[in-house]
Amino acid sequence: MTLRAGVVGAAGFAGIELVRLLLAHPELTLTAVTSDALAGRPLADAYPAFRGATDLAFSAHDQADLESCDVVFLAVPHTAALAQAPGLLERGVTVVDLSADFRLKDPAVYEAWYQVPHTAPGLLAQAAFGLPELTGGELARAAAARARGEAVLVGCAGCYPTATSLAAAPAIRAGLVDPAGTVVADAVSGVTGAGKKATERTHFCFADENLEAYGVGTHRHTPEIEQILGIPGRLVFTPHLAPLNRGLLSTVNLPLDPAAPRPSADELVALYRDFYADAPLVEVLDPGTWPRTASVAGTCRAHIGVTAHPTAPMIVAVGAIDNLGKGAAGQAVQCANIVFGLPEDAGLTAVAQPV
Amino acid sequence: MTLRAGVVGAAGFAGIELVRLLLAHPELTLTAVTSDALAGRPLADAYPAFRGATDLAFSAHDQADLESCDVVFLAVPHTAALAQAPGLLERGVTVVDLSADFRLKDPAVYEAWYQVPHTAPGLLAQAAFGLPELTGGELARAAAARARGEAVLVGCAGCYPTATSLAAAPAIRAGLVDPAGTVVADAVSGVTGAGKKATERTHFCFADENLEAYGVGTHRHTPEIEQILGIPGRLVFTPHLAPLNRGLLSTVNLPLDPAAPRPSADELVALYRDFYADAPLVEVLDPGTWPRTASVAGTCRAHIGVTAHPTAPMIVAVGAIDNLGKGAAGQAVQCANIVFGLPEDAGLTAVAQPV
Amino acid sequence: MTLRAGVVGAAGFAGIELVRLLLAHPELTLTAVTSDALAGRPLADAYPAFRGATDLAFSAHDQADLESCDVVFLAVPHTAALAQAPGLLERGVTVVDLSADFRLKDPAVYEAWYQVPHTAPGLLAQAAFGLPELTGGELARAAAARARGEAVLVGCAGCYPTATSLAAAPAIRAGLVDPAGTVVADAVSGVTGAGKKATERTHFCFADENLEAYGVGTHRHTPEIEQILGIPGRLVFTPHLAPLNRGLLSTVNLPLDPAAPRPSADELVALYRDFYADAPLVEVLDPGTWPRTASVAGTCRAHIGVTAHPTAPMIVAVGAIDNLGKGAAGQAVQCANIVFGLPEDAGLTAVAQPV
Amino acid sequence: MTLRAGVVGAAGFAGIELVRLLLAHPELTLTAVTSDALAGRPLADAYPAFRGATDLAFSAHDQADLESCDVVFLAVPHTAALAQAPGLLERGVTVVDLSADFRLKDPAVYEAWYQVPHTAPGLLAQAAFGLPELTGGELARAAAARARGEAVLVGCAGCYPTATSLAAAPAIRAGLVDPAGTVVADAVSGVTGAGKKATERTHFCFADENLEAYGVGTHRHTPEIEQILGIPGRLVFTPHLAPLNRGLLSTVNLPLDPAAPRPSADELVALYRDFYADAPLVEVLDPGTWPRTASVAGTCRAHIGVTAHPTAPMIVAVGAIDNLGKGAAGQAVQCANIVFGLPEDAGLTAVAQPV
């Protein structure tokens, strides 16, 4: 038995990375690859990397093709998933959504940050949040429902929330962090995070040899991180852009709970390793060692380093992922694996190019 | 049955890429990974990409471990392979050498270009040249010998010769090229081609945002390309360095034989496609389309574009490879596959990251 | 006395580099900076590098402002210069054009390559070609006319023609090159050469970590190089794109005249140094040394290396420039300097950032 | 009158940038350029950017040459300045030191962080701290002493301290920041910040396409920033490395004083602009606008953005500089300008390349 999978929005960066992963997946078979803009063109026309490897072509959005899938991945902008998910679910198709439409549990928060109405609050209530190492319970329930024959909906975490939350959650959940304190996350992303649209910001000549902050205090991933970590209104999140294609590093500063004993770096590493003991795709580095995004590029893996600051009452944790891998397409596949009862890392065991 | 494989010099760039490929190979099992400099250290210490994926450690050069292999890959500097290959072959171990020691058929040419004596001319005479799409006969004979139980030796082509020869050979072998003319190949490589040694040349701050030519008229790949293409003394080859990690593009200018009819771009593409009809890892692009190294990065694939110049009597062919993939480690695995009777592209079907 | 200068099309890459150079020029004062798209916005809005350094704003194309200039630089697409130059010249304004409209001496060649009619063949006949080291006579005549009070027109060389011709001309003019042979120039450019327009090709994620050839046999700089070097129909020119902002390297392969004695590298370097003895912005490197584009980035300088191939009958010359500097804005200023009787390198003596 | 200047350690990255700036300085004349490693070689041998622009050669460290200077810049590792400054000062030579030796007011702090004895605590007590926008008083006193004929010593701020402190100081000095709170500064640097030494860390192939944190909680710039800002033991500083040559961005998170009224972004920008009203090289960007390092690359300028976080009690300020410009060589020249009574920005008015 293999499962039939479709990708909607396959011409975008997350979509085409999904295609790459699914073509090599041992249990999922890609049967529908849609792009309105590129309909009819072979994948290899737009992305020559596929030349010689597949004859698949982009198709127009064809509901019938999609409805014959076991699972459809929505790699579309927000609001588009709101429009498409309900119909697929009604026909019994499991939906793994990479957009922001089914991430924020409270539709009012969604509406405040995205400035559009949430048209499917009922589905939102049922959706599992897709960040497996931190929302295993939700995904397990979804897997159980799927096993009963129900179509399920997963709203996958965004890229910044993934790296930031993986770095922060073990300390917070262990009660080490001041419940009244402000968490500061400064994160840096490669340019694939800005998407495929050609703009001045993604122009090589403006992005190359440049570092910049953006969206200070206003980035839409803020409420999502706050939700995952349970720190509403207590996050200062600043994203940055750096001149590389893939990679996302989040440095998270967590104020120590004055009531908790000050941990050593060794203790923190031990705590984190225990937390991620069953997570095949997360590695906690040795004390004093810090992650490199290049070491996880092209993969669904995450590397984390953590220490306690020597003078200030602060835990510093750093998470590295590939924004298109663990931060998008890889994570979506990981969620699908779980929902369909496959090994969590099926099709995701590749190692980054060492150089 | 799986075959036991070893990598000597595994800490270098070609060596560690071999390790990455072999860890995912369906038929070869990596059992020995040697590095004198890093002996005893886990792979993941030097290359954190392997963290969580393998517990393998570098070992010191251990002859016994290597002798228990079915095949040993030598990813060592020239002269080191001369020293190591004979002993392995004597013990029945097939050797796939990535150095220059067994490439040049004429030991005198080797000695002239490398300025050291060739200490194993007998082995050289037996060695198969490893560029499968162009030296299939030699490799087939090696495979036959291997099938009879003999250990065989393959001297794999270098990175520039691979891209350049794949682009040039179909036209030359079809008799389209002036047998008295000079072939001009201008090739550009990413910095992994300069090796792992930290020097001023490989320093980020000197390589970044820079283009340069080097070794004009003196690069050691010159005689190798001339040998493959059968154009002794008729090659002007200029390598260049550009600011990227992986990727090698060779633009080859082939003077038309005045006696041959002038081909159209369509005819050339058809000729090339016919030439590579049985080559699963080589793609010839549509007329007017030119290869991008990013589309083959991290893979053993080659993309080729070709046309006839509209005014001058010249064929222009462009070949793109990953210098560490099809230009080194991937090609070595491809050669091993052939020698052991496996599908040529076993373990080599990965597609480049589309972005 | 300072001279009043205007830049039309100042928001583009060549235009804004002109602005940068002119703001620091000792004798030219920038009085008009036009951009239809950005009219009314301060330079610093679009290019924050100017913040704190100038209060200048882009203006709409205002004929009166421009007509009050002594010299106007046209940094516009081809055909736009055809439209604008005549009016300015009629009002006595000297025009330095960076577009292709006044480069090709033969309007029929222009029309064949650009597929539009040339509407000012009379002006074309008067225009001086702006590549000072090679067209000093034309520019000297223009300077003399200017000194008599006439407005003059300069059509500046393109970026690829500049690097390629500087590398090739001394050998060709010395009679060393086979008059029936084909010259092969393979050149690599940074992405600023592709212009400011945001396209898939200039998207960071497609240009980064990639090498590609383009326009093989069809690039519009081909007839311009042939004209400068006097080699009609005998040039095979292949441009390439590499992942850096600024920098252009042209490797030129010149077939030796069978009748000429074979020169040594030392002789060639001596010949080239003699040729460029009076050129303050061109450096010929020592034999065996090859230019780096980083060493001329941000400047109007050119570095050249040259040798004779050891086996093949070929001279190999390599020229490095900044495509926006010596290849565009710097060269335009150099031409204006000459026309107005200023030192050739006035405002152009800056040195590249050493790292 | 021009002043004679020398650079010790001119072959390093900060040293050679000093050479570039001083060669174009209107009032300082470079008369001694020392490098023990490159003594006797022309600048242009090691840094071809200087070819055609200067005939200067590196000299061995020659005390006599240096003693004839009015000012000597020490671009040497820490401890080397401790060894060299006293003798120069005794001979009446003003010393501008770029190392860490004269930055930390308390020798015990120096000894704790650098693990070497401070051998010149008396000089340290006299040294002016060189970050002109924040230590104008110290530099004014040094200028007055210099005007009286005394040799003076300036210990220039480091690169991270410069960007971080320029971003943080106006808010702190205005009393907006919680005096018991922890300041979090996450900063990202280009690779020139790691110095000229070729190591695995500065190897192109490890730095390219990679982001990493390093020295978390242990970087030696920590006490320097704490000293400048007057926040001992209250700084969490994490430096990061990104794949670009020049550029340093520091994002500083400043906890609001609970007793102070919450400022708006407009108020903060007004406060910052007032603070830097007399600083010709610092620009405070409009509210909602964030600095780009590319806009200050190659210059001594700094760009700053600032806002108050919408939900958390935090000011976020971002400073962008060129780590070799305002972060090292440019700042040293700026300090010398002040000490010698020149315009603060003499020789430092260049604008970054707009692309």
Automatic annotation (TrEMBL), chains A, B, C, D:
Gene3D superfamilies: Dihydrodipicolinate Reductase, domain 2, NAD(P)-binding Rossmann-like Domain. Its EC number is 1.2.1.38. GO terms for molecular function: N-acetyl-gamma-glutamyl-phosphate reductase activity. The active site is at 159. It catalyses: N-acetyl-L-glutamate 5-semialdehyde + phosphate + NADP(+) = N-acetyl-L-glutamyl 5-phosphate + NADPH + H(+). Belongs to the NAGSA dehydrogenase family. Type 1 subfamily. This is N-acetyl-gamma-glutamyl-phosphate reductase. It comes from Adlercreutzia faecimuris. The gene is argC.
